[in-house]
Amino acid sequence: MSETSGTPVRRGSLRRVLIAVFSTLSLAAAAATAATLPANASAPTPPSGWSQVFLDDFNGTAGTGVNTANWQYDTGTSYPGGAANWGTGEVETMTSSTNNVALDGSGNLQITPRRDAAGNWTSGRIETKRTDFQPPAGGKLRVESRLQMPNVTGAAAKGYWPAFWALGAPYRGNYQNWPSVGELDIMENVQGLNTEWATMHCGTNPGGPCNETSGIGGNTPCAGSTCQAGFHTYAMEWDRSTSPEEIRFYLDGVNFHTVKANQVDAATWANATNHGYFVILNVAMGGGFPDAFGGGPDSGTVPGHPLVVDYVQVLQSAGGGGGTTPPPTGNRDAYAAIQAESYDGQAGVGTETTTDSGGGQNISSIAHGDYALYKGVNFGSTAARQFYGRVASGAGGSVSGLVEVRLDSRTATPVGSFALGNTGGWQSWRTVPANISSVTGTHDVYLTFTSGQPADFVNVNWFDFGH
Fold first, then answer.
1. Taking Cα atoms as reference points, which of 363, 416, 425, 419 lies closest to residue 395?
2. N or C: which terminus of the chain carries fewer CB neighbours within 10 A?
3. C-alpha to C-alpha distances, 105 to 58, 63, 302, nearest whole angstrom
């Protein structure tokens, strides 16, 4: 393990994730106040130009579980068919019991490791149901939590391994493609040390361009109160507005570790970042990371010290600087294929590698209420009257929906649409035409998706228009 990185082979991943972003000034303000906020502080209001795409303040009755509209429990000692002991050598069994995962009634979540009379450990691990957390083209994403690490140190903390992190969406349901799909460890800690580790995992294992199993990591101590004695704010910003693209890690608003796209080859970076992420909170006991710092748990380890989470928030900014949406520039040709994954903004959609002719990516996991935005589409002076979408669907037999085209606002009346049901599979592609109202000039184009069911119903590879 390198001296600046943390984790060995990690746990698994899901398919939708979420991310948030603050301005530098807002981060500095957060740094000045983080240590003095009460234990049940509300998530800060997003700065101007940023939107909140996910929030859980963990408000609720003491002793109840998490909101299962936001989170799902990982239970047992592995994902179905995945590596044993979550791929890390940790020794606990994860449960959905409120003995291990519960609200405290004061606006916090507690994930508490327990040991029974026979010496067996249980703990908790939850991950967001959404796997689509990623920045838009030219924009930013920020994933943030205010939390207190388990308040235990010294010999009593041997084996403790709390973490707040994210996994690349393609891992969910596969469980064999780590680390190529990416992992972003926003907060990790072991053995009750006053140290926060942040790491990006990517490439191949062992070794490879990302130094696996250690990853590309950095660490820093908590200032003021220790990481264990008080609440601190831990965040990751994924910034597509810079060149090269970069991922930054923050403790109480201070950027202490940055990974830039040019630190690895282009294929490695693309494989780790060409999709959404999902967010995970857990407390492991034992495993490769604690082993590197003395091992455990052992008979001297004291159970019952929770990871206390005040909130988890994901923010997003559009491209164009500071979250301000620029006017259409006419830089997209309406009559050439517009790749669906080249959106300038979105809600609810993910991306994945496509098997369609020409390769590349498609947008995926699309359901009722989702949308994708494409700025500055130039239709010229001769009216377009046709829309063509390259689409696929593996939805169930009773699930279908509309692919709609709207101009300049996602709440505008559609200028055209087509209905889609199952095409034979999520990579079974067909080009579907639709008539649209006459369109000239330059517009922001919204693809919106409407269905009578909540299930995913369509993937889109590309679209264009015709006269």
1. 425
2. C
3. 9, 7, 24
